[in-house]
Amino acid sequence: MNMTRKTFLAGVGGTALSASLTPSQNSPQRILFLGDSITYSGGYIVTLDALSGSRSDRWFINCGLPSETVSGLSEPGHAGGSFPRPDLHERLERVLKTTQPDYVFACYGMNDGIYYPLGEERFAKYKEGVERLVQRVGAKRITLLTPPVFDSVPIKAQTLPAGRAEYRSPYEGYDEVLTEYAKWLTTRKGWSVIDIHTPIRYALDEARKTNPNFRFADDGVHINEVGHFTIAKTVLKAWSKHPKRFPFAHLSLSPEQKQSLETATSLAELKGFDTERTLLPLFRQRHDLRRDAYLFAAGHLRPGMPKGKPVAEAEQEVLELDKQIEKGLTKP
């Protein structure tokens, strides 16, 4: 295990580990991703890792948790009544202590309106939860992603109209709620916000002009590979535009790739990506190892999640994956 790993891992799980976000001089840069099941699935994070100059001294740590909210709200009968939605703030301190991030990305909103029409109390809870998150991490160390799109078309038969007292199925116009949440985020002064809702909505509407059955999410929520690529592409553009704010994002795209990124809708369409694409299983394996290890180490209240390996053991395996990835990227 190299020195940067030893320096960081020595404190993981121990009482001496500080909850401060001040990084150690000898430790790797740690980029933490928080969010719900869309973040947990990791598609956009793996893509960012593959396209932004993967390095063993910069760790992308995904601690997204399915079903989670930042608002603390949960609809009646969630998960068939088996458990309420987890609240980020129940575990936030433990996640920060376990991961000690240099920077944080957070994507919340999809679950926070609990699939009801827009309501002042629910909106207020979302705002309060996001503000608490930004205050705890620090506005200079966090970027918020607006919520993705809710698409009612694929599940039209399961949605409900406005005017109900209770929603055991999603409100048909729920994307209107997410649009308002996104607008609020993008108008906050002094915050770093990347709007992913607008480009996803635009791409969806444009595709349906020629293909009415086009969809990013079969269930209206959990976006597919193309949707994750759209998020990653939007984030990459922000990183490229603001290199001082995101110094950890050393983009490894060639001029040809940067140009094709404008029109590509998936990694398969990105020009000159043949070599990296063959390494994607390694990027995915590295991502999953870290995600499961850190989620388990920090702890949470969401049942049914896999038990991750101890962080030190996972990072030892990641070290071997780093070598394979580096070898593949440098192969002539």
Shape: globular
Major sheet details = 5 strands, parallel
Helix and strand composition category = alpha/beta
Mean pLDDT: 90
Portion in helices = 40-55%
Strand-residue proportion:
5-15%
Total of DSSP H or I helical runs spanning 4+ residues? 12
Query: Which residues sit in consecutive blocks of at least 5 with pLDDT less than 50?
Result: 10-24
What is the string of helix and strand elements?
Answer: HEHHEHEHEHEHHHHHH
Instruction: Tell me how many strands there are.
Output: 5
Radius of gyration: 20 Å
Strand order of the largest sheet: 2-1-3-4-5
How far do the termini sit from each other? 27 Å
SSE blueprint:
Blueprint: H1 3-9, E1 29-35, H2 37-41, H3 43-51, E2 58-62, H4 88-99, E3 103-107, H5 120-137, E4 142-145, H6 174-186, E5 192-194, H7 197-210, H8 225-241, H9 255-261, H10 274-278, H11 280-298, H12 311-330
Parallel strand pairs: 1-2, 1-3, 3-4, 4-5
Helix pairs in contact: 3-8, 3-11, 4-11, 11-12
List keywords for this structure.
44% helix; alpha/beta; five-stranded parallel sheet; 332 residues; single chain; 5 strands
Please provide a brief summary of the model:
This protein is of the alpha/beta class and 332 residues long. 44% of the residues lie in helices and 7% in strands. The chain has 12 helices and 5 strands.
What does this structure look like?
Helix 5 (120-137) links the parallel strand 3 (103-107) and strand 4. With 332 residues, the protein is α/β, with parallel strands linked by helices. Helix 3 crosses helix 11 (280-298) and helix 11 (280-298) packs antiparallel against helix 12. The longest helix has 20 residues, at 311-330. The chain is globular. The chain has a five-stranded parallel sheet with strand order 2-1-3-4-5. Helices cover 44% and strands 7% of the residues. It has helices at residues 3-9, 37-41, 43-51, 88-99, 120-137, 174-186, 197-210, 225-241, 255-261, 274-278, 280-298, 311-330, and strands at residues 29-35, 58-62, 103-107, 142-145, 192-194.
